[in-house]
Design goal:
- This protein is α/β, with parallel strands linked by helices and 487 residues long.
- The protein folds into 4 domains: 60 residues, no CATH class; 202 residues, Aspartate Aminotransferase, domain 2 (3-Layer(aba) Sandwich); 100 residues, Aspartate Aminotransferase, domain 1, CATH 3.90.1150; 80 residues, Alpha-Beta Complex (Ornithine Decarboxylase, Chain A, domain 4), CATH 3.90.100.
- The protein is built from 13 helices and 15 strands.
- The strands form 4 sheets. A 7-stranded mixed β-sheet has the order 1-7-6-5-4-2-3. Strands 8-9-11-10 form a 4-stranded antiparallel β-sheet.
- The longest helix is centred in the middle third of the chain and has 37 residues.
- 50% of the residues are buried.
- The structure holds pyridoxal-5'-phosphate.
- The site of pyridoxal-5'-phosphate (PLP) has 15 residues, from α4.
- Pyridoxal-5'-phosphate binds next to α4.
């Protein structure tokens, strides 16, 4: 590992704090008095004076939690561990600036959008984007110009936004794309960055699913020329849940604006433990280098090859699609097996094998460096068995609606979100403007967003998505009613 990359300022601060007997008269309210093993740090009995009955249960959960402020560092953050750790991450992925987040890539998207686009201005956005991008639009008050990703004609999955989509658009403040997509397909980020830069526009990339790509030379969004990128450290890497990083390498985006907007949507009391897990992840990955990736990519390749042997199974990867795909995603297409994704996923979940996503036609599995050969082999056998148990007559594909929707924008997301609302039966709302989101989850991509006109096609798509899985972030979880903008 190169000299400076072996440093782990946040991990060191966490270890130092943990080694001390902290007795704070400030937050966090658990006061670090309990270890994960349920013992009080000062050795007193759990049921002794000052103990809370049943605290041993809670201790297992909070035993590793150390706040950044007033725990790992002082209240003024005078140790400065966080910016040093962020700079180390930036250097590791070829960026000039990085910000660690404990609100997931959702927080990154909420901050990234208003950093480049303001009230009434236009930004082109890939329609396969996550719901949090819409949150960013609500904060910014901006006008989305939705760009449809290319959809595979047979498999019905998004293949990424094509560079030609930009040429018809004008008066933009930037382009935001999501790559890898939920199903693992990769857009041509280098070509998109080139097209954006030749028009003086920044390229924003939601790379929530591709944090690992930044650790491969030239593979991450920043390495391919994007101006700013959001990555989840908890998705394909080993950070605590909720951890994410925004990285930037740009002379088109104002760094102060990015910082300001990320601060706007950040907690003032981040868990130092979560932040230290980002620091540790970077150090581990840099130290392990390419050997680690060769091992993990080879495990994913083995899984794809084994699943391809299953009669009727199509593995949607580079070989099948003829375009770059995320090496850590295994996406399986089922119609020719006759099996239905949710039924296969249910069997696997009962066996303790959760899938990233399962819609009618596809199963999506995520591999990470934490997987061993045994883990991957066991999951592969279980997936094969679950498909076999659900085999039926091959059936026509039922592509997921979220990838097909072409929205009709009537108002900006913010105008609709803030407007007075009224509730209607969804079936009676055709022609109205939605005040809310309907997101099948996963993938968390909206079928309908605030400011978009409700059409018959959308009503049917929502009904069909709610038969297969959860439609989230709408005010009526049964999806029978909708809040529309009161006229
Ligand atoms: C493309 C994309 N972006 C952003 C997010 C939000 O990520 P997080 O859960 O880290 O907030 C998700 C979540 O699944 C996602 O799929």
């Amino acid at each position: 590992m190169s000299g400076s990359q072996s440093r782990t300022p946040l991990v060191d601060a966490w270890e130092r704090a943990r080694a001390r007997e902290l007795r704070p008269m400030q937050i966090p309210g658990h006061k670090y008095r309990y270890r994960r093993d349920g013992q009080r740090l000062d050795g007193q009995r759990l049921d002794g004076e000052g103990s809370i009955p049943g605290f041993a249960l809670l201790a297992q959960l909070i035993g590793d939690d150390i706040a950044l402020q007033g725990g790992m560092d002082d209240n003024a953050l005078s140790g400065g561990f966080l910016p040093v750790a962020e700079q180390l991450w930036a250097a590791a992925v070829g960026a000039t600036h990085a910000r660690f987040l404990v609100g997931g890539s959702s927080q990154g998207n909420l901050g990234m959008v208003p950093a480049v686009v303001a009230d009434g201005q236009r930004i082109a956005i890939d329609r396969s984007s996550h719901r949090s991008v819409l949150g960013g639009l609500v904060i910014a008050g901006a006008q989305p110009v939705w760009v449809q990703p290319t959809i595979h004609p047979e498999f019905g999955i998004p293949l990424g936004v094509d560079v030609s989509a930009l040429s018809a658009l004008d008066d933009l403040r930037g382009l935001l794309v999501t790559t890898p997509s939920y199903v693992g397909t990769l857009a041509n980020t280098a070509a998109l960055a080139h097209a954006c830069h030749s028009r003086g526009l920044p390229l924003l990339v939601d790379q929530a699913w591709g944090a690992h790509l930044g650790f491969r030379p030239g593979a991450g969004a920043i390495g391919q020329g994007a101006d700013v990128s959001v990555t989840s450290v908890h998705k394909t890497l080993m950070g605590y849940s909720q951890t994410a990083v925004v990285t930037m390498h740009s002379d088109l985006i104002d760094l102060a604006a990015l910082d300001r907007c990320l601060d706007l949507v950040a907690t003032t009391s981040p868990s130092g433990t979560l932040l230290a897990s980002i620091d540790a992840t970077r150090a581990v990955l840099v130290e392990a280098g390419s050997t680690l990736w060769e091992r993990v990519f080879s495990l994913a390749d083995q899984m794809r090859a084994a699943l391809r042997q299953e009669p009727g199974v199509v593995v949607l990867d580079e070989q099948e699609l003829g375009q770059p795909c995320d090496p850590l995603k295994v996406t399986v297409w089922l119609p020719r097996t006759g099996a239905f994704g949710p039924a296969v996923a249910e069997l696997l979940r009962a066996a303790g094998i959760g899938l990233e996503a399962a819609d009618t036609d596809t199963l999506v599995l995520t591999i990470s460096p934490a997987d061993s050969a045994d883990d991957v082999q066991a999951a592969t056998s279980a997936v094969r068995a679950a498909i076999d148990a659900n085999r039926a007559t091959p059936r026509p594909p039922v592509p997921t609606e979220v990838w097909q929707v072409v929205p009709e924008v009537a108002l900006t997301p913010r105008s609709a979100f803030m407007a007075p609302r009224r509730r209607l039966r969804l079936v009676d709302a055709v022609g109205e403007v939605s005040a809310e989101q309907f997101c099948p989850y996963p993938p968390g991509v909206p079928l309908l967003a605030p400011g978009e006109r409700v059409t018959q096609e959308i009503v049917e798509a929502i009904a069909s998505a709610s038969r297969v899985g959860r439609v989230a972030y709408c005010s009526d979880p049964t999806t029978q009613t909708i809040e529309v903008v009161a006229s």
